[in-house]
Specification:
Blueprint (H helix, E strand, L loop, with lengths): L1 E4 L4 H12 L14 E8 L14 H15 L4 E5 L8 H5 L3 H10 L1 E5 L9 H5 L8 E2 L3 E3 L10 E6 L2 E9 L3 H4 L2 H4 L2 E3 L2 H14 L4 E7 L10 H9 L8 E4 L5 E5 L5 E5 L5 E9 L5 E9 L20 H18 L2 E5 L16 H13 L4 E5 L10 E4 H7 L5 E8 H12 L6 E4 L1 E5 L9 E6 L13 E7 H4 L14 E6 H12 L1 E2 L7 E3 L8 H11 L21 H9 L19 H14 L2 E4 L3 H5 L10 H13 L18 H15 L2
Parallel strand pairs: 2-3, 3-4, 4-5, 8-10, 10-11, 11-13, 16-25, 17-23, 21-26
Antiparallel strand pairs: 1-27, 2-14, 6-9, 7-8, 12-13, 14-15, 16-18, 17-20, 19-23, 19-24, 21-22
């Protein structure tokens, strides 16, 4: 069995470079000899990702690519950040964002929008007079009481005699995603109205190009959402905004609004950046070319990738990162214990389910405060914990937000209301301990929870308003974050126990931790066999692929249809194929050989190759080996040798058999566990 990191050969790397050469904006002189070409480079949602979880040099490679572009167009390049710069990695968290500030200073970041995560350590920590050599701008954040602006709304830069204004704004959803005590002195206003006012002021000061830099994104469709609303209402002919750069949603957008205004979002975690090329003709007319520059590759030629065996890095930024790691190592490098299996954030049900990471965390939280039940919003857990040694640094990356454990007494009716919000329209899921629940995503919002039981099977009366249960939650959820507004009606007590400390204590005391899928969260529509679309959904979410309805390309999968976004994402990533008649058959039960092929393709999409050392030997153990389809034999053999799949009773593989929910969850967990070894 051979499973290793992808190492593209010379021709693969060369082809990749040629492809990217087609989209990297050139700074060659345009046809108009008096025209000027500008490169506006956006980084967004960097989240302290100086290195990725495998130690790859994210910041140093990103810096090399950006500096090469800036060096090719000196005096006409402007580098900006869309916010959420600092919180996320152990090194950045431990040093309160200072290493990221130093990296951004070195790259030449000129200005940053305000992100919601900038509130988490207190605004002064990351926006005050510290290491950052660039200002924060925001046109729609005001002090409560006098209504004055907290930050300057825009900044004007002069590049080759041209005034370029950057107007900042932050998501209007701050009350739902920032803790009340961190927002108590501030309030967010309308993005559109305040960007309009600031852009008009910038124009009055002589700005010739105005770009909105907003910590808000689209609706994962490259057509709608806050950035497209700004472009549609403020851009186009006679508008006050020429282009819109976004953030917050962690997806990549390189699109054009209906009125011709360019809209772009640079993804997240330093995986890439936006290069918006603007050509200004002598008469002031503007043309645009938007490119996403991908750094999450193995390329050793421009644009460079940080996953290369010998990455091409910027030495100055590499030195900054190394110095920061040296300062943080005494705590971050401390080994707490070991994980017997990878604790992953992949959810076992679609659209919402439990995860091994969530099960372990909630079990620890429940036991720490002797609660009946424990809950945490799924989004609080950011990355997987690989099998093997677990360090304090990994815990900081796993749970970066400094949440405290809160407790309260809730009735069965209140618990039902909490779970309804987790699986309702716009719900974001939840992780649990001490109870199980079943939901029906096809039922009307507010009526989706069908049953709740304690772990021992004792039913919880969902209509009971008298008997209470002690629950433990993180303080973000207690404050109503992620739409859990029912928590705002409950009186919580602060235990003053940092959740990360409780997890570290648990690992130290146990020495060895593990977790498994237990059926805590069940989608009743998925009872029995899992469909092709559902398994595609599990894989796309596990790989953090952005939904894309337009990419499906099957005769029976249409935009707006349930699962169209995940089927499109899976097809785009090469995880799934259709049938000879052009259909996908999303509602058909997935067969065991289809599931296996999809799982192996997901392993490859994650950056690994899977090959069986001997195909015939690998599947010889199955009495029905001759029934395995020709197109599935090689992937099945690879998956068997990797321990991702196994046979059914009496040494049969049952290639055409339907897949149960439990089987799908087990295969997904094994595949992710192998990737995260």
């Amino acid at each position: 069995m051979f499973i290793s990191r992808k190492s593209p050969g010379f021709w693969a790397v060369t082809l990749l470079a040629l492809i990217f050469a087609l989209v990297i904006p050139s700074v060659d002189a345009p046809a108009d000899p008096g025209a000027k070409v500008f490169n506006i480079i956006e980084i967004t949602d960097f989240h302290g990702m100086l290195e990725d979880t495998r130690g790859n040099p994210v910041a140093a490679v990103m810096a090399k690519n950006i500096k090469d572009i800036a060096g090719g167009n000196p005096g006409r390049t402007l580098i900006v950040s869309g916010g959420d710069n600092y919180q996320g990695s152990a090194v950045s968290n431990l040093l309160r964002g200072e290493p990221v500030m130093n990296v951004f200073n070195n790259i030449g970041v000129a200005v940053s929008a305000l992100g919601n995560h900038e509130f988490y350590w207190g605004l002064d920590t990351v926006t005050g007079s510290g290491a950052a050599g660039y200002p924060v701008i925001c046109s729609n954040l005001f002090y409560k009481g006098d209504g004055s602006l907290v930050f300057e709304p825009y900044k004007i830069f002069v590049r080759d005699g041209v005034k370029i204004a950057i107007v900042g704004a932050v998501t209007e959803d701050l009350p739902d995603i920032v803790k009340p005590e961190q927002l108590k002195d501030y309030e967010a206003g309308s993005i559109v109205d305040n960007v309009r006012r600031a852009a008009q002021e910038a124009r009055a000061e002589g700005a010739q190009i105005v770009i909105a830099l907003i910590h808000a994104g689209d609706n994962y469709d490259s057509r709608n959402g806050p950035v497209f609303e700004v472009a549609g209402r403020l851009g186009g002919a006679g508008g006050v905004v020429d282009a819109v750069l976004g953030g917050h949603t962690h997806n990549v957008v390189a699109a054009t609004a209906a009125n011709g205004t360019p809209v772009a979002v640079a993804g997240c975690y330093g995986k890439g950046f936006i290069d918006l090329k603007i050509v200004m003709q002598e008469d002031g007319r503007l043309t645009f070319n938007t490119s996403y520059i991908d750094c999450d590759t193995s390329s050793t030629i421009p644009p460079y990738g940080y996953k290369a065996a010998a990455p091409v890095v910027d030495q100055a930024v590499s030195a900054i990162v190394d110095a920061a790691k040296t300062r943080a190592i005494p705590l971050a490098g401390q080994v707490l214990g070991t994980a017997g299996t990878a604790l992953t954030i992949a959810q076992a049900e679609y659209p919402w389910g439990e995860s091994t990471a969530g099960n372990w965390l909630c079990d620890v939280m429940k036991a720490k405060v002797n609660a009946d039940f424990a809950f945490i919003n799924s989004g609080a857990i950011r990355v997987n914990i690989p099998r093997g040694d677990v360090t304090m640094g990994e815990l900081y990356t796993f749970l970066p937000f400094g949440d405290f454990i809160m407790t309260a007494d809730l009735t069965g009716a209140q618990i039902k209301a909490l779970l309804e919000q987790a699986v309702g329209d716009g719900g974001k899921g939840i992780q649990t301990a001490g109870l199980t629940f079943a939901y029906n995503p096809g039922a009307p919002g507010g009526s989706r929870i069908e049953s709740i039981s304690k772990s021992d099977g004792t039913p919880v009366d969902m209509a009971d308003t008298a008997r209470t249960y002690r629950i433990a939650v993180n303080d973000y959820l207690a404050a109503g974050g992620d739409g859990f507004s029912v928590c705002k009606t409950v009186k919580f007590s602060d235990t003053h126990i940092l959740l990360r400390d409780a997890l570290a204590e648990n690992i130290r005391q146990a020495g060895h931790i593990t977790a498994k899928i237990e059926g805590r969260i069940k989608n009743v529509q998925n009872a029995g066999y899992i469909t092709r679309a559902e398994f595609a959904g599990l894989l796309t979410r596990a790989l953090d692929l952005a939904g894309d309805e337009s990419a499906a390309g099957f005769s029976d999968v249409f935009p707006g249809q349930q699962f169209a976004d995940v089927v499109g994402a899976a097809a785009k990533a090469g995880l799934v194929c259709g049938y000879e008649d052009g259909s996908f058959r999303p509602g058909y039960p997935v067969s065991r050989e289809e599931m296996t092929v999809m799982a192996v393709r997901a392993v490859r999409a994650a950056g690994f190759t899977a090959e069986a050392s001997n195909v015939n030997a690998a599947i010889a153990r199955f009495y029905d080996q001759d029934e395995i389809s020709g197109w599935a034999r090689i992937p099945v053999a690879a998956a068997v040798e990797a321990g991702i799949v196994c046979g059914r009773e009496s040494d049969y593989f049952d290639p055409s058999g339907h897949v149960t929910r439990a089987e799908a969850a087990a295969v997904l967990e094994r595949a992710l566990g192998y990737i995260n070894r």
